[in-house]
Amino acid sequence: MSNLDRAPVPSVCGGRGFVVAEPVRELLSPRHVKLGESTEVRRLLPNLGRRMIGAWAFVDHYGPDDIADEPGMQVPPHPHMGLQTVSWLHEGEVLHRDSTGSLQTIRPKELGLMTSGRAISHSEESPKSHARFLHGAQLWVALPDAHRHTEPRFEHHAELPTVTAPGLTATVLLGDLDGATSPGTTYTPIVGADLALARGADVRLPLVPDFEYGVLSMSGEVHVDGVPVLPGSMLYLGCGRGELPLRAESDAGVMLLGGEPFAEELIMWWNFVGRSQEEIVRAREDWMKGDRFGQVQGYDGEPLRAPELPELPLKPRGRVR
């Protein structure tokens, strides 16, 4: 997924100095961002008050959108480096193409995981013949320094492990939850899970106390540790929790995102995650010259042009402003 903002604001992320070491209940409101011609997303990370949750560095929630008479998602070829993208759908389909030659239709409850490593480019679009509704989340995971120059790759996992309890089915996208481990490749201690809750469900989900967590509400009415979290919003929970109380007032869907606090400081600008201004400048120049990021074959349209860099220097600082 691309950040299509034509004037992206640099985000300085990482470092453990601003990690909340105890349980909290910090409600994050979204920023509405236009994505392509017909899709609007609710951006939860990076947020004015919170930059990362573990290695999760970017979270967009979109839909449900009625695209019966619309082209739906249309994101032209664009570059990425230093991160993994996670595509997750509740409704609809997304056709993924990338510069490694991957061509894959991603459907609800299937994991599309792209590791950009040193450099990759990809496009995302709704197939010409598509379902009426489009609803999902797009997320980025920052790669640690030891792995951020790895070779690019794409993974598609149609079968994922689940954890069940009365009124709850949890699908594990990444990492481990209550003994269920995703087949998706990870580079830091992390967890991502999709939680489907039936109306009236009242459960306690086991957590790792050393992880920090957030819960993104996708649909329905759910109380997270007693806090009502509406669709399109996220509750940051801090660290130090051994379990998480969840109560559903209706059928509901939420995403649990967590991980070990990300120790390294980094810069995120447009679709790049780096460690210095020089890296970001060089990546932008390489993309504009057609170097390093490869080509996406088969997309009907021109690649995205990179926006202009800000005048102020980009410096890695910390996890919050």
TrEMBL record:
<feature type="domain" description="Pirin N-terminal">
    <location>
        <begin position="41"/>
        <end position="141"/>
    </location>
</feature>
<feature type="binding site">
    <location>
        <position position="78"/>
    </location>
    <ligand>
        <name>Fe cation</name>
    </ligand>
</feature>
<dbReference type="InterPro" id="IPR012093">
    <property type="entry name" value="Pirin"/>
</dbReference>
<dbReference type="GO" id="GO:0046872">
    <property type="term" value="F:metal ion binding"/>
</dbReference>
<dbReference type="InterPro" id="IPR011051">
    <property type="entry name" value="RmlC_Cupin_sf"/>
</dbReference>
<comment type="similarity">
    <text>Belongs to the pirin family.</text>
</comment>
<keyword id="KW-0479">Metal-binding</keyword>
<dbReference type="Pfam" id="PF05726">
    <property type="entry name" value="Pirin_C"/>
</dbReference>
<feature type="binding site">
    <location>
        <position position="122"/>
    </location>
    <ligand>
        <name>Fe cation</name>
    </ligand>
</feature>
<keyword id="KW-0408">Iron</keyword>
<dbReference type="InterPro" id="IPR008778">
    <property type="entry name" value="Pirin_C_dom"/>
</dbReference>
<dbReference type="Pfam" id="PF02678">
    <property type="entry name" value="Pirin"/>
</dbReference>
<protein>
    <recommendedName>
        <fullName>Pirin</fullName>
    </recommendedName>
</protein>
<feature type="binding site">
    <location>
        <position position="80"/>
    </location>
    <ligand>
        <name>Fe cation</name>
    </ligand>
</feature>
<feature type="region of interest" description="Disordered">
    <location>
        <begin position="298"/>
        <end position="321"/>
    </location>
</feature>
<feature type="domain" description="Pirin C-terminal">
    <location>
        <begin position="193"/>
        <end position="292"/>
    </location>
</feature>
<dbReference type="InterPro" id="IPR014710">
    <property type="entry name" value="RmlC-like_jellyroll"/>
</dbReference>
<dbReference type="InterPro" id="IPR003829">
    <property type="entry name" value="Pirin_N_dom"/>
</dbReference>
<feature type="binding site">
    <location>
        <position position="124"/>
    </location>
    <ligand>
        <name>Fe cation</name>
    </ligand>
</feature>
